Amino acid sequence: MRKRWLTVVSLVAALSMIAAACGDDDSGDTTTAAPGTTAAPTTQGEGDVAFDVGVTPAPCGDAVNEGNGCIYLGVLSDLSDGPFVALAVPLTNAQSDFWAKVNADGGLDGFDVIISAENTFDTHYDPALTVEGFESIKDRVLMLAQSLGTPQTQAALPRYAEENVVAAPATWWSGWAFTDQDQGLILESGAPYCFEAMNGMSFVNDMLQPGDDFVWALVRFAGDYGGDYGNGAIAAAEALGLPAPAADIEQLEFSRGGDANAAIAELAQLQPNLIVIVTGPNEMATIVGGVFQSGHQAFKVLGAGPTWNVGLLAVPDLVPLLQAVYYVTGATGNWDFDTQGHADMRAAAEANGRDPNNAYLAGWYWQYPVLALLQQLVADADLTRGHAVEVAGNLTGVSYGGILPDRDYTGTAHDQAVRSSLVFGVDPAASDGLTPFTDAFTSEPVTAYDLSEPCG
Predict the structure, then answer these.
(1) Domains of the chain, CATH where assigned
(2) pTM for this prediction
(3) Run of H or E including 413
(4) What is the three-class DSSP state of 195?
(5) Which of 55, 79, 145, 220 is in Cβ range 3.0-4.6 Å of 278 for a Cys bridge?
(6) What is the pLDDT of residues 4-39, one digit of tens each?
(7) Buried/exposed 255-291: b ≥16 CB within 10 Å, e otherwise
(8) Taking a C-beta distance cutoff of 8 angstroms, is the pair 32, 274 a contact?
(9) Is the dihedral of CA 69, 185, 146, 395 positive or negative?
């Protein structure tokens, strides 16, 4: 029987009202300004530690450990009005909380690590503003704790290379595994979008047991987020003997003036069995609600990880629909998983008044390779940017406390890329609104895939 749902217009309005609330806190809540740094390497302390930009022998402002020097990290993120603000704000908060815990535990053998408000720049998910933001903070930071967005990071990457700045991305693009794409500067974590999509398509194939009349469609943002995940879904469909997508719809971000009307109309006419969506949370929810309201109600949805935010639970008419039709993929176990890394993350979130959010979890685990890199630099008594680049390209044995598999950053992209991921469904009773349908798994299409070039 047909149920009543919010109109598409009212759904968009409801989602826009909760976007800020999804972030749970203001970002950049560390307000200490970073002092100027020396232009050439100098030394600090009895160990004669070499450093140049973004490191001082003086303590961080509001220092936890008064005798420690300070390492300054930067953040370039979508913090006010872009399509991923609801994800980026808790993500950024997690990274500040991560380093606060490191400092509370004594720091890094003579150094505290800080992300200050001065070194946090709101890029609005815009490539040009990402470059601008980097220019505004580059003389004050050793490296970037976060560079959000694939096209955004790609736009700024030539400048990162010129300045010898290593970055942890807030993106799962498969190209980060290739030195000719990331210039050895990007410390990615988790399965790339395309493998996440392949695993998701394999799960859906097993669940739906599609027949000869199976029809599926793809809705995606332009660029390498939509390209990587979407192309992974297409590759998996071919490997599984499924047809090509009946429609491949480009969706413009709502934050840039896009709307979902054209996508909804095309999907309503096509009536696919499966819709693969690679957008932000607002676009996903509006498209799903709009297609259902159009009268086509016999469909399932496979959403990329960034299509989910726990704030969607604040739209009560939407929740039962998502429970019925929506599967979402993810790189790791969600909030309540039982690992040491998850426990540390939850403890930090509780101590800092953060609400459960899978974006906070991602922000947390993206800092583990940064921690491993800084630990090695300190052990080498060389905190210069040039040495950071050398170490980043040869980093091995990075541990995520069980959140993700331990990994190396050496070898070929095919050999080093993480291939396992999970699939979740919506559960309003769960801490972050999701319940796992699988453990971490690697599907046959992913196992067989030759990652010899980026997927998208």
Answers:
(1) 8-16+193-330+420-448 (3.40.50.2300), 53-190+336-416 (3.40.50.2300)
(2) 0.88
(3) helix 413-416
(4) helix
(5) 220
(6) 344 444 454 455 444 444 444 454 443 333 333 434
(7) beebbbeebbebbbebbbbbbbbbbbbbbbbbbbbbb
(8) no
(9) negative
